[in-house]
Each structure stands twice: as C-alpha cells, then as structure tokens.
Design brief:
This protein is α/β, with parallel strands linked by helices. The protein folds into 3 domains: 16-144 and 283-348, FAD/NAD(P)-binding domain (3-Layer(bba) Sandwich), CATH 3.50.50.60; 148-280, FAD/NAD(P)-binding domain, CATH 3.50.50; 360-446, Immunoglobulin-like. The chain has 9 helices and 28 strands. Helix 1 packs parallel to helix 2 (81-93), helix 1 (33-44) runs parallel beside helix 8 and helix 5 packs parallel to helix 6 (220-227).
C-alpha cells in the first residue's frame, strides 16, 4: 500500500492518486444492524460488497443493548441486542463480503463515469494508512448520535456526572463501570426508560424520569416494563432547569412547564442526585452525507430519498437511523435490506428506475411530523413512513394532491413513539400525475368523536 505523508502541510496534486484502491460494486459505510443487513442483501443480489466500520467490531450500538426485545419480527424470536447483532455478524462472516474495521471514512467523492454509471470513491483511514474504495453504489448506514446537554442548553454549573443515556449504558454494559449512585433521568425516550431499569438492577437509585412533553416519548411496553414494574415515577410536563454542583453533580432543579413548554415560575424544586442521564433525542450522523452533496430533510435531519432509498445523488443510498430514527431494530433491518438490494440493482444495472418515471415530492401535513420517502420517482406501490407530532385517540390518514383527496385510511389512534407506515397504491400515484400535481401530501387529521 502506498503511504500518505501526513507531515506535509498540504497534499501534493498527485498524492491521492498514489493511494491504494480496491474496487467493489457496493460500498456500505457502517457495520451496525443497518449496514450488515444492506450488505447481505446486496451480496445476495450478486454484488461485490465491502463494509467500512469505524469500530473494531461489527454490531454497532446493539453490542451494548443487552436487554431483550429484538428479533420478534425478523427472526420470530425474542433476542438481546448482542444476540440479534451476532446473527448478522455470523451471516456476514459466512460470505466473501470485504470488511474494513477500525476504519474512519474521510469523504465520498464522485469519480468519472464508467459505462454510463457513475463511480463513487470512498476514502478511508485505518492503522495501516489511507485507502480508497470505489463502488458504483454507496450505502450510507452510519446510524445516529445522542443529543447532549449543550444542544438542549440546560443552565447551571458543569460538574462531572452528566451523561447521555447511551454513554451510561456503554459504561455499565460494556466497560463494567458504575456512572453514579443516585440518578435523575431527563427524557422518556426508549433508551432513557431502559436505562432507568438497568440502573435500578445495578443498585443505582433512580429518583425519577422527567419528561418535557405531556406524554411519554418511548414505547408503551418500555414504560410498563421499565418504569411501572420497578416503581420508578414518570413526571410529565416537567424538565430540568438547572444543574447544581461543583466537582460532581449534587442535585438538579426541576420545574413544571406550560402549554408552550416554558418553565412555570414557582414550580421549581430541588432533587438531590449525583448523576443526570440525558435521553433527549437522537440525531442522524449525516456529516458524510452533506459532504457528498446529499440533500437533507429539515424535519428528520436525514436524507431526502425516493422509493428505492436512493438520494438525489445517483448511486448513493441511505438506510437505518441515519435516514430517520427508528423505534425497532427489526424495522431497521427490513428497510436496510431494501436499500442493499436497490443499491446492488443500480450497481449491476439489473433494476429499473435508473431514469425516473415521474417526479413527485411527498410532504407531511396535519399532525404528521414527517413523511418518507420524500420523493416518488415511479408509479408503484409505495410504503410511506411517518410519525405524528402528538398523541391522538382518533385520526385519519389522508392522501392529497392539488387539494383533492385521493385516498384515506381508517380512523384510529396514533402516538409519536411509534413509527407508522401507510401503503400508497400505484393507482393513487397515477391519479396525482393525471391531475398534473407535483406534490403528494400525507395528512394526519384528528377526528372529532361524536
């Protein structure tokens, strides 16, 4: 392998050309559940596949998720996170998929077109040096990261003892470290709920889970199994307004919030603790996506994709939590298999859709927070994914084009914690095209009960 002299203040013009290059049909960035599922699907379709993973092991975040609840849909068994990941790791190892572990991707740059298909170059760095992988298709499966204290701007001092819930999970489950003895958890996302139970089982007193919204943000089963079954209180419409302590957290101030989510003066109270865990949302890891010219949806902070999960950059596909945050790993697997198969079809020239049949945007309305895919490029049966912004007991999904209702679902309840899907028939897409529409609207509208 050619070396890259990092002592140079700037690379000479011919330096990158001297970096060793390996060619594949599909390059998958990320070796978690999404990346492995996409790689396996692409390999099954006959593509030469590589996986690039920045950690030393495949499996991603699932390696630290030792609780059960995985695999019920995909494997028809209840597995822990490591067990679920190991199923895919074993499948990957049984193939000739090339693995580049402990490798950090530096960028994705498009090369010259070859045989009418654009070739992408993935530049990575690992302990052996710099390497370039070329592929006709690239699948982005980098996952997501947790929002931190700085992103939600909690006032107060900055002592030790403030962790994201995922970091605390890693400390306990992987590093065998105890983050504290008396914890407060801010946010009722699934990982926060799961960590409330995990801390309790490890002998850490959980003073309570505090949630800004008037409803829990995690799955109902996690509220029951992780809080109710352990007698851990959930305080809704309440948030942490100040962190107290010098060297180490000594307490937090919590306050109730009004309908506008602003703290209500006079409701403040002090909760003694030595640890604050934050479960306040996840953000797709899209720095590489943006650098590659991929358009992001401001609602999901993930890529704008079509039905095949291809972005606006030809040959770049996206799946898993880097696209939109999922509630179940099984759903990540299903979506990622679609992306991997589509990437292989694109790379091998075996699939339709290289030239779009149509061009429609998909937009959310009503209480729908987002709709995905954001683009429709073929008049074919399409599964639309969405989440609502607030819980509602009775609402109806309507599909609109140019203000005309084309399709409607049944009236039922919706919750923000559940990622919903809605089938969009090909005939409805054709109706929108016949109307001359450029946009399809997915609207979730509350229904007044008689």
């Amino acid at each position: 392998m050619a070396t890259f002299d990092m002592r140079n203040k700037r690379a000479e013009a011919g330096t990158i050309a001297s970096v060793a290059t390996q060619a594949f049909d599909v390059v998958v960035i990320g070796g978690g559940p999404a990346g492995m599922a996409a790689a396996l699907a692409a390999h099954k379709a006959g593509a030469r596949v590589a996986i690039v993973e920045r950690e030393q092991h495949l499996g991603g975040i699932l390696r630290q998720c030792i609780h059960p609840g995985f695999g019920l849909s995909h494997f028809k068994q209840e597995l822990t996170g490591p067990e679920y990941a190991q199923r895919f790791i074993d499948q990957v190892h049984a193939t000739d998929i090339a693995l580049f572990l402990n490798s950090m991707v530096l960028g994705i740059d498009s090369g010259e077109p070859a045989e009418d298909t654009e070739v992408h170059t993935v530049t990575l760095m690992n302990p052996a040096g710099m390497l370039q992988l070329t592929g006709r298709a690239v699948v982005l499966a980098m996952g997501c990261r947790e929002r931190t204290r700085s992103e939600i701007k909690i006032p107060g001092s900055r002592p030790a003892g403030v962790f994201t819930a995922g970091l605390a999970q890693r400390y306990i489950n992987i590093e065998n470290l105890k983050p504290g003895s008396r914890a407060v958890i801010l946010g009722s996302g699934d990982i926060g709920l799961i960590m409330a139970r995990r801390c309790t089982l490890e002998g850490i007193s959980v003073e309570g889970v505090y949630e800004l919204m008037p409803y829990a943000n995690g799955l109902r089963r996690n509220v029951k199994n992780c809080l109710d079954d352990f007698g851990i209180p959930l305080h809704l419409s309440t948030t942490v307004t100040r962190v107290i302590g010098h060297d180490r957290v000594e307490a937090v101030e919590v306050s109730q919030v009004d309908d506008h989510l602003a703290p209500i003066p006079g409701t403040e109270r002090i909760v003694p603790c030595d640890t604050l865990l934050l479960s306040v949302g996840l953000i797709p890891e899209n720095e590489l996506s943006v650098a590659a010219g991929v358009e992001l949806d401001p609602r999901t902070r993930g890529a704008v994709v079509d039905q095949s999960l291809q972005t606006g950059v030809p040959g770049i596909f996206v799946c898993g939590n880097v696209l939109h945050v999922h509630d179940l790993a099984d759903n990540v697997t299903c979506e990622s298999e679609r992306a991997g198969a589509a990437a292989a079809a694109y790379a091998l020239g075996t699939g339709a859709g290289a030239v779009p049949d149509c061009e429609l945007t998909v937009s959310p309305a009503g209480i729908a927070g987002y709709a995905l895919p954001g683009r429709i490029t073929a008049a074919a049966l399409t599964k639309l994914n969405f989440r609502v912004r607030r819980p509602v007991d009775a609402a109806c999904v309507r599909i609109l084009a140019d203000g005309e209702k084309l399709f409607a679902g049944k009236v039922r309840a919706f919750k923000p914690s559940v990622m919903e899907s809605f089938p969009l028939p090909a005939k409805v897409i054709k109706q929108a095209l016949d109307l001359g529409a450029s946009e399809i609207v997915l609207s979730v509208d509350p229904v007044e009960e008689a």
